[in-house]
Amino acid sequence: MAKRTNKRQSTLPEPPKPVPALETPVARASFFTIYLIITIIIGLGGAAWYRSYLEESNLSSGETETAVWKVVELPGKGFGMVAKRNISQGTTILREKPLFLVPASIRESPERLIASLVSQLSPEKRRQFNALSHHSNPDSTGEAQMLAKTQTNAISAGDMIGIFPNTARLNHGCSSAFNVAYNWAAGEQELVVQAFKPIMEGEEILTTYTDTKRPRDERRQYLQGAYNFFCTCSVCSLPPEESKRSDERLVEMSRLKSKLSEWGSKDMGGGEATNIINKIWKLGEEEGYWSERGSLAWDAVQVAAAHGQEDATRRWALVAEKWFSIELGPNSLQAKDAANIIRRPKSHPSWGARYRVKVESPAF
Ligand SMILES: C[S@@+](CC[C@H](N)C(=O)[O-])C[C@H]1O[C@@H](n2cnc3c(N)ncnc32)[C@H](O)[C@@H]1O
């Protein structure tokens, strides 16, 4: 049996003594040549890595192609964004600063305001703005067209709305069809786009323009009115029977979500509230609707904490932290708040605010 030895007692043979490398001018010269070559190789490798890092995570506005996605023309949709390679769940596919921000409600003429903001853009940024589509008012020109482009492409950024030329190329998909979500990072003043589902190479990268937890006809009517297109996404194209079942699930998810507000008005106990959250989760799983999972689990954290249930609070916070990180990014305030509750469940602001009662833990 081999004896355990420490280094000092090692019986391994002594390593060979290093050969003095820099003793002659020739040796010194070849050392510097090798040093130079290694430095260049490391430098080039580093630059390539840095370029790919920028491409994946911190793009400057105006790019239409990165290592991860490209903007292409798609039949019947204008432009859209397509994955250039498999994208794993939780990947940040894009960070983007706005061309400009506008308050969500303004007193002055919106046309005039947008025109003035566009006139202040650099020529390159103005080109990016002019390249955007404007389906809400296709025949418009001049200031009206600038307003139409803003209406078609604006994305909420805190209490403002902004124009983000890359994110603006994301087309819409309903319930199980959309695979990315964006989140305004107020600290960095940039939009973060996260893949909350795995996306295969060649697949279209889709966001959602509306709450799609409603029946297909209603969704289509809304999208036609607000964005001027008839939705034929994978959910809207389901055969009649499957479409009916999908509609039923979505309507039930929506009904249960509004029923949950009864806990807020103290008309529902903590056990029932967490039971409803588990039901919504299950329906979402059946539907393939993975969005909003972080906030659903966060609602359960609130219920469990208010009823003073430490173990359930921590378990729901673990789920919330996981899904906030996937959908909003690990540096999002939401993911950080959930991480704090995992460490100290009793630090939740609602801790013990209601009578103590057992609540359900995650049932998945
Ligand atoms: C924010 S833009 C998206 C990018 C746009 N396709 C482009 O070419 O720049 C919104 C417009 O894209 C089109 N669009 C988005 N999702 C679509 C879909 N699922 N099917 C057809 N057209 C869609 C509609 O014309 C909509 O008004």
TrEMBL record:
Matching PANTHER family: SET DOMAIN-CONTAINING PROTEIN 5
Domain of life: Eukaryota
Organism, as annotated: Serendipita vermifera MAFF 305830
CDD domains the record matches: SET_SMYD
Transmembrane spans: 32-50
Occurrences of domain SET (ranges): 57-210
Protein name in the entry: SET domain-containing protein
Lineage: Eukaryota, Fungi, Dikarya, Basidiomycota, Agaricomycotina
One Pfam family hit: SET
Keywords: Membrane, Transmembrane, Transmembrane helix
